Amino acid sequence: MKQANDGNLTGADNIANAKADLEKWRTGYYNPATGEDYRGYDWKDNFVSNSAPQYYVNANISGGTEKTDYYISVGHIDQDAVFKEYNYNRTNLQANFNMQLTDKLKVGFQTLGKIEQNVNPALPGGDDYFQMRNSIFNLIPTMRPYANDNPDYLNYISPTHDGARNMAAYTIDNAGKHQKDFRTIQLSANLEYKTPLPGLTAKGLLSYYYETLHQTDNEKSWNEYRYDPATQEYKVASTKTDTYRGDVRNHKVEMMGQFTLNYDHIFAKDHHVTAVAGFEFFKEDRKYLTVAQSPVENPFVENITTNANNTVSNSVRTITTASFIFRAGYSYKEKYIIDFAGRYDASWRFLPGNQWGFFPSVSGAWRLSEEEFYKDSKVADWISSIKLRASYGEMGDDMAKNFNSSYPDFAYLPGYAFNNGGAIISSNPLGNGQDAYTTGTAYKGIPQTGLSWMKISMMNVGFDMGFLNDRLKLEVDFFKRKRSGIPATPTDIIYPYEAGYSVQRQNLNSDQVSGIDGMVKWNDRVNDFNYFVGVNLTLARQKTINNYGEVFLNGWDQYRWGQANRWSNVKNGAVWMWETIGVFQTQEEIDNYPVNIDGANNVNLRPGGLIFKDVNGDGLIDDYDKRPLGYAATDYDWDSGNANKNPLLSMGINLGFEYKGIDFAADFAGGFMNTFIGDWHVKYGIGTDQMGYVYNVVDSWQHEDIFDTKSPWKHGKFPAVRSNNPSIRDWNDFYAKEINYLRLRNLVVGYTLPVKWTKKALIQKLRVYFEGSNLLCWDSLNDFGFDPEISSVTGFDYPQHKVYTVGVNVTF
Fold first, then answer.
1. pLDDT-derived band of residue 161, with 50, 70 and 90 as boundaries?
2. What sign results for the dihedral spanned by CA atoms 587, 592, 595, 601?
């Protein structure tokens, strides 16, 4: 079909051969004697399971006396993936113990522990799951896993699109093993002391956290073969030689402490005063060690031996922060409420003198429905409560996470960076000294002394209302979150090139997220039937406020590339696209069309091709005709910063009921006003080196007779599958789909047996239940067949699982 669409299927012999090949594929012709094999192979059916079994078990015990209480819980989960030999398991432990030592002194202890393990085949590259997904999407059905169908010999498959390889090789026995063991333990102790002053208590908390990760990778070599029917021999066609063995050991220790004085007292019945003042600290020590060998010297021993191929990477990091905190609150008759709070934070990230930052906040509320004039009004009969709220607060961000690459630790200090390049230098340049490689050291450059805290300011205005004795509740909030002091490089400061210095970053840029959040809920009871239903909505959008140093050559340049005072989705990515205004129906229409669509006077166009809007009216479709037509930009694995990928409008629906031991609950999650912008496989059809999707092949424009390039064109939903297709030569809104969806996220149905049935077995409570996740979804991506929460431009996402759980809760 593709050859005919390209106009390349000509000549009686070529057409006859194509028809004969198609018939052989249709009938699955196979001749072992000659090696002719026209059998299709279903890679998904053979290498992807339809289910991923998991089990979860949890046991807990609790009890106590008048002055002590305890709680101990142990849980374990074990889950396989849809790919074979992929397993994840985790064991959790929680233990709480509280004791009232005196009437005024209370102490508590808590232990949290976790043992986690991942095991799967060790595949080339850093993401073993991606390699499996990549192969299942790219291996075409004309390929088979075993030479001559003999499972002892892997069939040689030349790496296809994106390096996909024979999935039969991806087993632990053949490819090697990846294992990651992750263990954590957290010990916490807290105390509370009631002072002789009424309402004043002292609280202390000390926490110790330890985390260790041990990861081993053993990527092995293997052979792939071709079978020669004439000699009945299996000949090595390819050998994977890029072996790797790695051992990673990471450790992290955290210490956190907090001491506060808390005051809570009511004066003269109507005046409620609260206050908190205290100090907290945090310290984290991280150690990373990676030892690797590639290529592997001895494939039969799993240990890493001393070898010139070895590499060692070792790093440490210490994080320290400290804070003084305070809060003061006052309310009068719970009608007028005001709170003041502040934090004085310090971070190791900045130059002494810039380490401390003060971040205040204030909030207030007025319960209008508590006023006497309101209680006496008729409005109170159906609006039972009204509360007006407003708040403003600031927080600090020391850029330890999002900007660590551009502002590394201790960047404010001068110094040198070791292991930066190198050279082979003779030990005696004037004589016959032996040459040796010397590791290089580079000057770090001018210390970055101009950066300090980023400030995040949050403003919120809202109200709460209750109707019909608060059976119906409404909450609405208008919010704005502004982030200022984002690091940026000044463009108006220039060093001579010969100086070898770069300009220091400064706190220059800013952005903000603004929106509205609302919730409405109905809760009521009719005899033994208790039910509820609630809906929450959030509409939020990000905007770039300042983008320092923008320089433009002309008005178009500013319109196309400017980001200041602009919605953040309008960036430099694929959200800028051509608008599709139609589809060419005939070749005559193409020949007479006045606008140059393909950049080559329309010689490459065929019926079914897309018609793009000539926005500027110059008769040529080019970059000047692109406009921002999507809510979000493209989402590549290697680029997570190309605008916002989240839906602008999010929704949740919660409903449920209880009736004589039966309980039911359903949670829906929805996302609206988002855009999926597809690339590569989403637009390309099936080829000899890659797979495609059903929609853009079967339901595409094609000749009525796929062997006759002169036969009439048959209409389809998508452009014809062709080698040179102007409809996919650049971003356009035909392949950009607005995402709107509503998913049944969780469904729970349970039944609690009557106590009179269970008490004879010393069972206090016995509940059986069914729980399902991701059971249904209504969405706008039916044409593509993708999950609406897709995160890849190609659709190569790990599938969203439907989970069915049947369980029993027993309380003794």
1. low
2. positive
The structure tokens listed for 13 are 């012999």
pLDDT digits (tens, 9 = 90+) for 799-811: 678 888 888 888 8
Query: Across residues 167-189, what is the average pLDDT?
Result: 96
Q: How confident is the model at residue 203 (pLDDT cuts 50, 70, 90)?
A: very high
Q: Give the pair of three-digit tokens for residue 729.
A: 């030569």
Q: How far is CA 368 from CA 39, 138, 386, 517, 759, in A?
A: 76, 63, 5, 21, 50
Say which residues have a Cβ less than 8 Å from residue 730's Cβ, sequence separation at least 6: 577, 578
Listing DSSP states for 763-786 in one string gives -SEEEEEEEEEEEEEEES-TTTT-
Q: Are 486 and 505 in contact (CB under 8 A)?
A: no
Render pLDDT for 535-576 as a digit per residue (tens, 0 to 9).
999 999 989 999 988 888 999 999 988 889 988 777 656 688
What does the alpha-carbon distance between residue 606 and residue 348 come to, in Å, rounded to a whole number? 63
The tokens for 167 are 């999935």
Give dist(CA 243, CA 241) in Å, integer: 6
Do residues 98 and 72 make contact, with C-beta atoms less than 8 angstroms apart? no
Burial of 463 (0-12, 13-18, 19+ CB in 10 A): middle
Q: Residue 633: what pLDDT?
A: 64
How is 352-363 classified by DSSP, letter by letter? TTSSEEEEEEEE
The CA–CA distances, whole Å, from 16 to 12, 13, 19, 31, 194 equal: 6, 5, 5, 20, 95
